[in-house]
Amino acid sequence: MDDRCKTRYPILLLHGAGFRDLKRPLYWGRIPGALEAHGAALYYGQQDGWGKVTENARFLKRRLLDILAETGAEKVNIIAHSKGGLEARVLASGLGMGDKIASITTVGTPHRGSRVIDRLLEAPRPLFSLAALAVNNWIRLIGDRKPDFLAVCQGFSTAAMAAFNRAYPDHPQVLYQSYACVMAAPWSDIYLGTANLIIQWLEGDNDGLVSASSAQWGQASHVLHGPGGRGISHLDEVDFRRRPFKQRGKGILDICDVYVDMVRELKARGL
Question: What is the mean pLDDT of residues 166-170?
């Protein structure tokens, strides 16, 4: 163990839509273990998987204050995947927590919405309502308090996100940075291949759920293409398969290395 990821402030990990912070399976795969092996102090958001962004942000405000009270720290660094990045932004600039957040790093977050969602929302409302009923009932079984699948999906439209960005501008005291990932081809991820094709047609390079253009935000934006002809998918971003991309070669061999470098850079900034 070394201290290359031992940051000044503890790290709060915020998961994306549709999942919760369960011990088994752990949303973040091998990533927490890799960070803790290098000295990182980690905490989890524990917010709802399909809760509204604003509802989850209010829950996270209480969670953040509890972490500060427990650790004695003045601030936290937030690393957020997908929808969790939007909740972090509301927390910083909508709920008065900006002075308690040193940085917000988002990975695969749809900051500018999705044109695919725009198209899907044109479907007959009964279809969405039926899907929402099924999803909401399922995720209640694993702990969600106030799931609202339909409202969350509507919030990912380009119009909704344009309004969101006007309502929640970046807080001047917070460092914002982002990571966008790109699948090299539909076969890069069997689960997201079809979605990758559709998003590529409508929006360009993407990770199978979020376009690279939508995922870029803040003072520093990074676009990761991954090794060779494989690329990095939305699931890869949180180590869904629990293994490196490649054992040897050039480029990004393991998503855990991306997070270690991410946190190492926060430490270098004094955060």
Answer: 96
